[in-house]
What does this fold into?
Amino acid sequence: MDTARWMSNLHGDLRLDQIVMPGSHDAGVYGVGEMTAKGSALSWAKCQYSNFGGQAEAGSRFFDLRVFVQKIEEKKTILGKLPARAELRAGHFMSEGSSKKEPTGGAFGGSLVNILKDSCGFVEAHPTEFLILRYSHIKNPDLVVQAIKFFITNMGPRRDLIYINGNGGNLAALPIKSLRKKVIMVFDEKAFPAHITPGEGIHRFKKHPASGVAKLPSGLCTCGEFSASAIFGKMSMSAVRKQAEGSLAAHKSHGNTVPHLHFIYWQQTAGALTWKNVEQTTTAKGGAHAKLPQFTQQMFGEGLASDGRPPVNIVSHDFVTTETCTEIIGLNPAYSRDTSLQGQRGWTA
It folds into this structure.
């Protein structure tokens, strides 16, 4: 499978809520030389192997992005003093700080500018694909939106790579042909209550069920709950799977009166009392990677809803690889284990 362009096999008339995508948890905290520890927690803070371009090449299409302000202190050099400055960077922290206080106990990852450049570069090189960037856990929404708008304004003709829709609309109900070759940015409405402007590429994100979800004016809505799988330092895959199964049952009860995506948290986070190396735990025998085929087989057995919706739309995980993404992509009928489904009308390009 060509994971860099796997969406090319999906018919453009499919709605967003009719496809399954691999997702990247804490996508901005990757180990390619851009990480900076805040304290002594670098070993557990890393959640991905490569930058957004590398994760997209592996097959991921939905990115969990948390942006923080890193203060760069004044430094003395042989040429004089370098002034203090601040930089917006992704991060993974125990304490996420506030608008006036830096986060602690974790690490900063890639810069916001490089993340946007990598994302736009990928969809430009792969026009059948799109990427969704979800901004959450943000303590400085004004700065983040200001930086993103500045980036978009200075893109020139490449501004078309950003999904902008002044008319709004529910993204989950859109055909994927309208999203191809786009970077779609959605912002948690709790962190960005006054910033949602679809005409500038700032789209709403909200959880289902939530107040007012039946009147979702525009943007993207997902259901699914995170499992605190390591409350006492034990990263339990049985707890993760139990939560995923409960999430599936809840999603079925929602129906599709308001189109939304079902989001599965297939990840083993660190606990409140013991912080462990996420990479070692995720890739260990019996960890999230090893248990993924068993879970996707279970989801495959669920089949499709009457209107073609799969049981899950996004499987978010740490340390995405071509192997893990291939497993998740296989839940799309175009890549189905059941070859009789591959020729169904509307499923292949």
